[in-house]
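Below is how a single chain appears once it has passed through the pipeline. First comes the sequence as given, then the structure the pipeline wrote out for it. We keep one example in the README because the format questions we get most often are answered faster by looking than by reading.
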Amino acid sequence: MALDAARSQEGFTSTRAAQVMSAACRAAGLDDRGAELIRLGENALFRLDTEPVIVRVARGEPWLPKARVEVAVSKWLAEEGFPAARLVRGLEQPFLIDGHPVTFWRLIVEGSRKATYGELGGILRDLHSMTLPVGLVLPSFNPFDKQELRISQAAIPEDDRVFLRKRWSELRDQFEGLRFETPKGPVHGDAHVQNLMVNDRGEVILIDFEAFCFDHPEWDLMVTATEYHSLGWQTDEQYADFVRAYGRDLHDWHGYDTLRRLQEFGMTTWLMQNVQEDEETAAEYRRRIAGLRNDDAPRDWRPC
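Resulting structure:
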C-alpha cells in the first residue's frame, strides 16, 4: 500500500490533479465544468465555476492524515467563531480519490486589498492564545515530515538529491538540540502572509490548515522572521508591524538560526516538487538550492 501511495503522488502534475478534481466533484455531486487551477504547490487548488467552492487535491495518500487534521481544525475554528476558512457543509470529508485526499471549501470572495503583516502578527497572537478542546488531538510540528518523499520523487539532478539528504541529516541533528522555553499550543504550521485572505467585507481570514499542530509558537514566527532577516522579502516597516502586533521578534531567540535553516530547506523542497511545470519554477529552484549549498551567500530568492 505504501508503494501505491508513493506512485499516486510521483506524477502529480496540474493535469493529474485536474483529473482527480473532476472525479472528486462527481463523487460529491458538484459540477466541475469550467473549473480553474489557481495554485499548484503542496496541493492543487481549483475554483469551481458553477458554485462558490474551492477544491483542494493533495499529492497522495501519505497526505491523508493532514487532510483529516484540516477538516478537524476547520470545524473547531468554526465553532469558536475564529476568522478562518470554512468547509462545504453536508459532505463527509476528506474524500479519497484514486489515492488522493480531496477536500471542499467555501469560496472566500476577496476584497480590494491584501492582508498586512501587522494583521498576520495579530491573528497568530490570537490563535496561539486559544485552548484546544477535549477530543481534538493534533500532531507535533515535524519539519521533516514528507521530506523523504519530496527528495526521492522530485525531478532534480542526482547530486542535488545527495546534497539534500546530507543537509537533511545535519538539520535533524541541529533540531534535536533545540530547547524551547514557551508553552505548547495551537500552531498553524505554515504561517506566511499568503495564508491570510481579506474578504469583500474587510475581514481577515486564516486559510490552509494541513500543517496545523500542537507545539511551540516559534514554529509560526520563524516564517516571517526568515523572510525578513534572511530573504529581505519585507520592508523594515512591514516587519516592525508584525513584531509589534505579535509582541516578539524571533530573531532575538538563541534557536533562530536553526529554525531559519529549517525554513529555507522546507521552502526549497516544497518548490522542487513542481520543477517540471515550467522554466520559471525550475530557475527559482536552482537559485534556492545554490543558496542552501552556500549558507553565507546572500539570498536572491523570489516569492512563489
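Strands lie at 36-40, 43-47, 53-58, 95-97, 100-106, 185-187, 196-198, 204-206, 213-215.

See the next section for the split statistics.
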